[in-house]
TrEMBL record:
Keyword line: Signal
Organism, scientific name: Henriciella mobilis
GO molecular-function term, one example from the UniProt record: metal ion binding
Signal peptide annotation: 1-27
Keyword Phosphoprotein included in the entry's annotation: no
Peptidase M16 C-terminal domain location: 235-398
Designated name of the protein: Insulinase family protein
Source lineage: Bacteria, Pseudomonadati, Pseudomonadota, Alphaproteobacteria, Hyphomonadales
Extent of Acidic residues compositional bias: 477-490, 498-508
SUPFAM superfamilies for this protein: LuxS/MPP-like metallohydrolase
Organism domain of life: Bacteria
Sequence segments annotated as region (Disordered): 469-508
Length: 508
């Protein structure tokens, strides 16, 4: 279905780009003034074309604003709340070398004051409007979110526009960010999760930007000026994705979005990072010594990409293997039958540059060897013998039956739409997803098990003081870095609800 509507202000939007994932179109034509400088020419009002996808889960309206921003909107008139998501596919991994942490500094500051409003005044204004706004980042993505009542959406979006176009980057909040980061440099050295992740990156991708991390030097090198410059590199109109859910029409939403991003650069020269080429698995577990009563064990191997035909068979198989809680084989064996752990899990992690199958769990130091042996035994069994027809049907029933729970709020719908956009799954994916799960056959699942779940396909990292491991792998010792915290002060927590724009994509 196609609907044509008139924009509330001028600038042509190219309907041909509507089906592109997150592309922009020029908002105006340009001409030269008497001095030879480029001058924006008034554009004739143009029709804004809205493509409507009538889906089972949601009716999605797809359009490009007069300002050239690509938007997916689910209009929900019964709930007077607007949930908005914005995302750019550049993240922390593309921080300049020596300035690791710069993207984190940028997103931290985005709700710490803008225009004439300092940090406290900005927070007070958000409270007065009963709204939230904040930004976050991961290795590959920067994202922002806002939630507001539709009754005062104009005022709330004015505040978003102020933050997007005139962030203050005041020294006070910036210094607080530095203090928090310096504290984290020390506390992370006693975090099992951090030490496991660092060891894994050193083992499998030591030369990739994903393996770079913050240091005292990089944090102290950051400045508000550098953060503002980083904003202009990352937050640009070209490639920007927007999703929205709420009681608002395309005609009402388009000018609010255009105002919010009016000051963003059109494009950026940012260079995409390269794909990860994982090294071969270590031949024995890698142990990171940490005085703890328990050992954390993680294991990682190659997995299918999101657009690989093997993804859905692997996704269904993962439920039976380790992703299905107490219904998974690993939980039944390692917790229920053997009592080696309170919990063990597995999952598929997909992205633009890295895809892997991972899992983990904690166990007493004394039983670490038995825990790893139990993992390998279950992998061997499922790789050699496959799963049963009943296990397959149980997995499908859960994965399809629980899917609607991902759409029980405006915020969840907006987040899921953004995941679909960033992974380029197509506007009809929400309707196709359960059929893709149901189409997986026993032959598909068992073929994937034999290919991916061989125990020697995985690298095993153990953090703690494990016992019962006869042979271990080793890595070169990282350079010792002394961290000075004399001037760091007490750590001040930043409002995680405002900086975490939306949850990690649901890869199912």
């Amino acid at each position: 279905m196609r609907i044509t509507v008139k924009p509330l202000f001028g600038a042509a939007a190219a309907a041909a780009l509507l089906l592109a994932a997150c592309e922009t179109v020029p908002a105006t034509d340009t001409a030269l003034d008497d001095t030879g400088a480029a001058e924006a020419a008034p554009a004739e009002p143009a029709e804004m074309v809205v493509e409507v996808h009538e889906g089972d889960f949601a009716t999605i309206q797809q359009f490009v604003t007069p300002g050239g921003v690509s938007v997916w909107l689910v209009e929900e008139p019964s709930i007077p709340i607007l949930s908005l998501r914005m995302a750019w596919e550049q993240g922390e991994a593309s921080d300049p070398e020596g300035l690791e942490g710069l993207t984190s500094a940028l997103v931290y500051q985005m709700n710490e004051g803008a225009g004439d409003l300092d940090s406290l005044a900005f927070a007070t204004r958000m409270e007065e409007l009963n709204m939230s706004f904040g930004c976050g980042s991961d290795s590959e993505t920067v994202y922002c979110s806002a939630s507001m009542l539709t009754d005062n959406a104009d005022e709330a979006m004015d505040l978003v526009a102020l933050a997007m176009n005139e962030p203050r980057m005041d020294e006070g909040p910036f210094e607080r960010f530095r203090r928090e980061q310096l504290i984290s440099l020390k506390t992370r050295e006693t975090s099992q999760q951090y030490l496991a992740r660092r060891a894994l990156e050193q083992a499998l991708m030591p030369d990739h930007p994903f393996a770079r991390e913050t240091s005292e030097e990089s944090i102290n090198a950051l400045t508000p000026e550098l953060a503002l410059a980083r904003k202009d590199e990352v937050m640009v109109k070209d490639g920007m994705c927007v999703t929205a859910v709420g009681a608002m029409s395309p005609q009402e939403l388009a000018p609010l979005i255009d105002e919010a991003v009016a000051g963003l650069p059109a494009t950026s020269d940012e260079t995409p990072i390269e794909d990860v080429d994982l090294r071969d698995p270590l031949e024995a577990p890698l142990v990171v010594d940490l005085p703890q009563p328990q050992s954390l064990v993680i294991f990682v191997g190659k997995g299918p990409a999101r657009d690989d035909p093997d993804f859905f068979p692997a996704y269904v198989l993962n439920y039976t293997f380790g992703g299905g809680g107490f219904e998974s084989r690993l939980m039944k064996d390692l917790r229920v039958e053997k009592g080696l752990t309170y919990g063990v899990y597995t999952g598929l992690d997909t992205g633009d540059h890295l895809n892997f199958w991972q899992g983990g769990g904690s166990t007493k130091n004394e039983s670490a060897g038995a825990f790893i042996e139990g993992l390998r035994t279950e992998m061997t069994d499922i790789a050699e013998n496959g799963v049963t027809e009943q296990e397959l049907e149980d997995a499908k029933a859960y994965l399809t039956g629980s899917y609607p729970l991902s759409f029980d709020s405006n915020s969840k719908i907006a987040g899921n739409l953004m995941s679909v956009r960033l992974e380029d799954l197509g506007i009809d994916y929400l309707d196709r997803r359960n059929a893709l799960v149901e189409a997986v056959t026993l032959e598909d699942v068992n073929r994937i098990a034999a290919e991916y779940l061989q125990p020697d396909n995985f690298t095993y990292i153990v953090v703690g003081q494990p016992e019962g491991i006869e042979e271990t792998a080793s890595l070169p010792d990282p350079e010792d870095e002394e961290i000075s915290l004399d001037d760091a002060g007490d750590q001040e927590e930043h409002n995680s609800e405002e900086t975490e724009a939306f949850p990690d994509p649901d890869h199912g």
